[in-house]
Design brief:
Helix content is about 15%, strand content about 40%. It is mainly β and about 850 residues long. It starts with 6 loop residues before the first strand and ends in a 7-residue tail after the last strand.
Length: about 850
């Protein structure tokens, strides 16, 4: 064997063309005997050696090359070229070379030499703010040590460009510079330079060829692409985003289709600089409306389960109505209230049902149609599974599910299950999904409910002004998915608290120092025994209001109330005559008042009072899937509360001459309340995925309350009265059991007598619009009109003698803090008892009910 002494480098033409000279084949042969123009066949004697691969396993690199011991190959030849190509296309190397180390007869030894691409050491941004840089870091996901390839550079550029184009910078350019890092071998620092250019904003949008729809209608149809007009420029910035613009052009066509113009189309559009402002653009859109069409005769083909007359009634489209393909599809497949042909069949087990609308005859402006129906067989539920819950136990979810194995498949049961899971408050309603897997061969369906956990626990740290107490600070914690069972499973279950069993614990403390302290603790077990939704609740609380002097001071003036309650709730559907949205709850309530030197501010100066009452609450709640922003459904509550009629068994004492501390030692009253709330979706916008979009929702509420007596000589109880007006931040001044009810735009309690009211009425109308439906930060705006009044006797009650207010506000829901409200209300009527009250007031609220009755 003669050792090689001269290396002859031969480059394959294929490699030269494919790899632009970066991947090369280099061969060395016996000096003086090797003819590069006359390839020779060799057998690979050993596995090729590898040089230059520091971050990649050398055996893997040989495996990728495709070179195997014993291979016959021409040197130079296609086998070597393919090996270089296989290694090169991994994108990890700047240079790939194959050397002939030596030859011995018909045997050859090869060496693969590579030069690795540099790896990322660090990267930075130029031309962007610190906040934008942080956002970009989260999106492009560059990590130290990543191989810097041409694809990586191109991908980063594309992501950064898209980020700024979405912000309206259509002329953005991105340049990425590589600089070697002297502190690390074969590493580079990337500098991502952004030149955003001028933001492209829209001055105006002009429409041409439209006669059936006005320009205003077409502008409103374009949900995302808005011209520079008030109020559009506030809620939707007038920037041009190509993807949104393309969707809005489709929306124009859909709008025409809904009006019967099924052949309408956008013929062309153009973008030009605005003559009014060179930094803005104008958009011109030409439309061809076509002819308007109407529904003709609609026939049903293939229906056996339901007669054509019933199907036509459900479809509810009459001959001569304007042709509307969107309405047709909604009535066939997806009516928001569930009254569609698909729901009719699927609520009776026909999971495999299909309906295909076919246009059979178009004459003049009328379209006759046939609905071709395939009913299939009824399906039963087979397996029911849940996925995505990493905190909540399966059994907590499964007990809310209405589709049980063996049941006939019903679409309404699936929808109701989604609502029940949303109402738990543990999952993101936007990410909830149902995946049915039909099994046509045996007529069954497997159903998987997919959920995504969200934070449901809340921490309250807030402050507010309460009556004459001044500033009152509040600290509290609410654990909505607690597990007492897991609390005893060791430290592994405390991350940071044991969760998963759906129990609720609330702890709340309020104080402004010595003058006022309040502590409340409550616990709710929603499923006692785990088999039926029978709920058990328990609470204890104590509140003290004083003049701020220590308890040992003889001049201390104070009132203290200690209380406890226990309640039990069950589903309520007597004789099966009601739907299953009803529940009935019975609770026992105890309160004990201690009064010291408080005569100037209380019904008596020194003494005690005891209240022992039974409360029965009947409620129905069918609100929609999103408990923070319902769009459909309603809730109603009817309650009665009674104390024992002590005066009936007390003989005939002279109450007129009796001291108040004796007269009210045992409190007696009967109290009745009714509240109702309805949600009506005004618009019906849906996203591209078919889910609910941002819609206007009307919420109407009404409430009445009455405090009665048993004995006219004793009169109305001075405790537990109603106080109307203000924000309704209950808890700040409940020393006499008063119930504070909100009426935004007037002073706290200003619409009730100073001693409280025994009758009350309140009406509310709110128009709501969501800004963000993200469960981590739900935000919606509202405009409201409130009306209400209260009376010092039940006989004076007049539900039409009201004080009116109106205003606007915003609600912000943060999982850790709950629902925060900011409103500004104006009163529309003068209030005789408060002539100096200002016309408008800012209102801050915590919670959902705004001091609901």
């Amino acid at each position: 064997m003669k050792k090689t002494s001269i290396k002859i480098f031969l480059f394959s033409l294929f490699a030269l063309i494919s790899f632009a000279g970066s991947a090369q084949m280099k061969l060395s042969a016996d000096s003086g005997k090797y003819d590069p123009n006359n390839p020779k066949e060799y057998i690979l004697a050993e596995q090729p050696t590898v040089t230059g691969a520091e971050h990649m396993d050398k055996n893997v690199l040989v495996l990728i090359s495709g070179l195997t011991v014993g291979d016959k190959m021409m040197v130079p030849g296609q086998k070597i070229t393919d090996a270089i190509k296989n290694i090169w296309k991994q994108g990890l190397f700047e240079d790939v070379q194959i050397f002939v180390s030596k030859t011995e007869g018909d045997k050859v030894w090869l060496n693969i030499t590579v030069v690795e691409r540099p790896r990322l050491s660090k990267f930075n941004f130029k031309g962007v703010s610190k906040g934008e840089a942080n956002d970009l870091r989260d999106e492009i996901k560059l990590v130290r040590g990543k191989v810097v390839t041409d694809f990586l550079i191109a991908d980063v550029k594309q992501q950064v460009v898209k980020k700024f184009v979405d912000k309206g910078y259509s002329n953005v350019t991105v340049n990425i510079q590589e600089k070697p890092d002297s502190s690390l071998s074969n590493s580079v620092i990337l500098t991502i330079e952004v030149k955003r250019g001028e933001k492209i904003k829209i001055q105006d949008i002009f429409f041409h060829g439209n006669t059936a729809l006005t320009e205003g209608q077409l502008h409103r149809t374009m949900k995302e692409t808005k011209r520079q007009r008030f109020p559009y420029s506030i809620f939707k910035p007038s920037k041009l985003i190509q993807d949104d613009y393309a969707d809005d052009k489709k929306s124009i066509v859909e709008k025409y289709n809904s009006k019967g113009y099924r052949d309408a189309r956008v013929v062309r559009d153009s973008i030009s600089k605005s003559p009014k402002n060179p930094n803005r653009i104008n958009i011109d859109i030409w439309v061809d409306e076509g002819h308007r069409y109407y529904f003709g005769t609609i026939k049903w083909i293939g229906n056996a389960r339901y007669p054509a007359k019933l199907l036509s009634a459900v479809l509810n489209i009459k001959k001569g109505e304007v042709y509307n393909s969107s309405l047709l599809n909604e009535r066939l497949f997806s009516n928001p209230n569930g009254n569609d042909i698909s729901s009719l069949y699927m609520d009776n087990g026909y999971l495999f049902f299909q309906v295909t609308p076919v246009e059979t005859y178009v004459h003049n402006d009328t379209i006759d149609m046939e609905m071709h129906i395939y009913e299939g067989s009824q399906a039963r539920v087979n397996n029911v599974t849940v996925s995505g819950n990493d905190k909540t136990n399966d059994k907590i979810i499964m007990r809310q599910i209405r589709t049980q194995p063996g049941d006939l498949f019903r679409k309404s049961d699936v929808i109701r299950t989604q609502r029940e899971l949303s109402q738990l408050g543990y999952f993101d309603p936007e990410k909830m999904n149902v995946v049915p897997t039909p099994n046509p061969e045996n007529g069954t369906v497997d159903i998987n409910y997919t959920v995504a956990e969200k934070s449901s626990d809340q921490i309250e740290l807030s402050g507010g002004w309460g009556g004459g107490l001044g500033f009152v600070g509040t600290a509290g914690i609410s654990l909505k998915n607690f597990s007492i069972r897991n609390a005893f499973k060791g430290s592994d279950a405390w991350k940071p608290i044991p969760t998963g069993d759906g129990q609720e614990i609330n702890l709340r403390f309020q104080s402004n120092g010595l003058p006022y302290q309040s502590l409340n603790l409550s616990f709710i077990q929603p499923w006692v025994g785990g088999h039926k939704p029978n709920s058990l609740s328990f609470s204890v609380y104590t509140t003290t209001e004083s003049n701020g002097l220590p308890t040992t001071n003889v001049d201390r003036e104070s009132v203290n109330i200690k209380g406890a309650s226990i309640g039990y709730g069950v589903p309520f559907n007597p004789w099966g005559r009601l739907d299953d949205y009803f529940t009935l709850q019975v609770s026992e309530n105890y309160q004990y008042y201690t009064v010291q030197n408080y005569g100037s501010q209380f019904i008596f100066g020194n003494g005690y009072a005891t209240s022992l009452s039974t409360k029965v609450l009947l409620q129905r709640n069918s609100e929609g899937n999103n408990p923070i922003f319902p769009v459909t459904g309603s809730s109603m509550k009817l309650s009665g509360e009674w104390t024992p009629p002590y005066s009936v068994f007390a003989g005939h004492p002279d109450y007129a001459d009796m001291a108040p501390e004796q007269k009210y030692k045992l409190l007696e009253y009967q109290k009745y309340k009714f509240t109702a709330s309805w949600y009506t979706q005004i618009t019906n916008n849906r996203g591209a995925d078919g889910k609910e979009g941002h819609n206007f929702v009307l919420n109407t509420r009404v409430g009445f309350g009455f405090l009665g007596d048993y004995n006219p000589e004793l009169g109305y109880c001075p405790f537990d009265r109603f106080y109307l007006g203000g924000s309704g931040l209950t808890g700040y001044s409940l020393i006499d059991g008063r119930e504070i009810v909100a009426l935004r735009g007037v002073d706290e309690g200003s619409l009730s007598p100073t001693t409280g009211a025994v009758a009350i009425a309140k009406y509310t109308v709110e128009l709501r619009y969501p800004i963000s439906l993200n469960p981590q930060a739900t935000v919606y705006m509202l405009a409201f009109a409130d009306a209400g009044n209260s009376w010092s006797s039940v006989t004076a009650f007049n539900p039409f003698n009201l004080y009116r207010t109106y205003g606007a506000g915003v609600r912000i829901f943060l999982p850790m803090f709950g629902l925060l409200g900011f409103d500004y209300g104006f009163r529309a009527d003068d209030i005789p008892t408060a002539p100096g009250m200002q016309k408008g007031q800012f209102v801050f609220t915590i919670g959902q009910n705004l001091g609901e009755l």
